């Protein structure tokens, strides 16, 4: 005869598991985090990166298929773990941080301003495999803020289209 306590444990376990049916990739809103775009311009335009990163994050925040991991959450984990800024330069560490914050995808990138031309490059990285899934590049005029915003809107639109295609196909894919 099986003890009543064992039967109860099995029943509670089965009940608990039935509350979480198997979900496909498309059914779960995956987390995505955006790192600050790095300034690789000769002479530097350090404040420009914050503006571009903020705009890219805003575009992703409006994307209904992914959940944006807020920058404040990334910062909180850094503080809790007592992590210095030098460790953030290590891509492997950044991916581990992504796992700690619940991000499935990380967006890394840079921008380059030479004369009136702005170039933005971003990469989407799968946190679980550390593989680059997709890279994007856009160029445009940097002579005024409106031109720069058009570049970041363009690359953000391309990124959202890629993420939507992953969602529709029910899996992440390399391109």
Structure report:
This protein is an alpha/beta fold. It has a domain of 99 residues: Double Stranded RNA Binding Domain, CATH 3.30.160.100. It is 46% helix and 24% strand. Strands 1, 2, 3, 4, 5 and 6 form a 6-stranded mixed beta sheet that branches. The longest helix is centred in the C-terminal third of the chain and has 25 residues.
List the helices and strands and how they pair.
Layout lengths: L3 H15 L11 E5 L3 E2 L6 H16 L4 E3 L2 H10 L4 H4 L2 H11 L1 E12 L2 E10 L5 E10 L3 H25 L6
Parallel strand pairs: 1-3, 1-4, 2-4
Antiparallel strand pairs: 4-5, 5-6
Would you kindly provide a brief summary of this structure?
By secondary structure, the chain is of the alpha/beta class. The protein is built from six helices and six strands, in the order H-E-E-H-E-H-H-H-E-E-E-H. It has a domain of 99 residues: Ribosome hibernation promotion factor-like (Double Stranded RNA Binding Domain), CATH 3.30.160.100.
């Amino acid at each position: 005869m099986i003890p009543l306590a064992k039967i109860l444990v099995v029943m509670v376990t089965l009940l608990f598991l039935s509350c979480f049916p198997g979900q496909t990739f498309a059914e779960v809103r995956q987390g995505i985090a955006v790192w600050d775009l790095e300034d690789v311009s000769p002479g530097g335009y350090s404040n420009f990166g914050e503006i571009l990163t903020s705009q890219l994050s805003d575009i992703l925040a409006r994307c209904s298929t992914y959940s944006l991991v807020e920058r404040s959450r990334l910062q909180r984990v850094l503080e809790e773990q007592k992590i210095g800024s030098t460790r953030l330069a290590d891509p492997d560490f950044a991916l581990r941080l992504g796992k700690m914050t619940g991000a499935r995808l990380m967006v890394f990138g840079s921008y380059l301003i030479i004369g009136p031309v702005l170039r933005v490059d971003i990469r989407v990285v799968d946190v679980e495999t550390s593989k680059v899934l997709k890279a994007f590049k856009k160029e445009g005029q940097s002579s005024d803020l409106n031109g720069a915003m058009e570049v970041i809107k363009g690359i953000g639109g391309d990124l959202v289209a890629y993420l939507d295609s992953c969602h529709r196909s029910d899996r992440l894919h390399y391109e």
